[in-house]
Here is the input.
Amino acid sequence: MEKEKANIDYNKTVISIRGLEKAFEDFAVLRGIDLDLHQGENLVVLGRSGSGKSVLIKLISGLLKPDKGTIEVLGNDVCCLTEKQLRELRIKMGFSFQSSALYDSMTVRKNLEFPLVRNRTNISRKEIDIAVETVLDAVGLSQTINQMPAELSGGQRKRIGIARTLILNPEIMLYDEPTAGLDPITCTEINDLINEVQQRYHTSSIIITHDLTCAKTTGDRIAMLIEGKFQRVGTFEEVFDTNDKRIKPFFDYNFTQ
Here is the structure.
């Protein structure tokens, strides 16, 4: 599917990162990075395994504390928030985990109901049913509502995981390796779904991946993370219009074999 032109407001920043540093013992993972996510934008963070991509998501969501620097999410300084304030902020952020993170003992319906019941105490049964049916329709899996996660394919589980994040109508989506472990056809379906979510729910998203097809298909902008810093930021073509030996092998491996 051809990516539709996104409605991006470049005057509004929903995530702003400045001078971010994070190390584990003597290993510096992030070495002073700056990054902005604009309203309505799909921003892809590319990098090798172990380059700090997933660490970045954990820092943004307040699951890890930075050693230096600032992270503002929807106008909130993440590092200064209490646990209660962090929980409230995380409701506005949808997390699509690499593993899908579904509860194996619950049906698809119960998996989708869980975040609603936990976070919206006054919600009615009718409102829950409508919300579940709406997000299942959005990911194209209405027929799975009474199935168990074990009965679903890997791609279906990934879609249900995305549906569960959408049910709270988040302003920001954080995708961690959304196409990992999936066959090429299912990868295409997930990439198309990420774009559909952007259009339908008007989300701003950070997509963590090392899959260049995913990056090219979903990203309005690409940030290349190498050696703890963003070495190139721009459109897909701008990032890979280089002979930099740290960057060119990514393109060659994905598109010239």
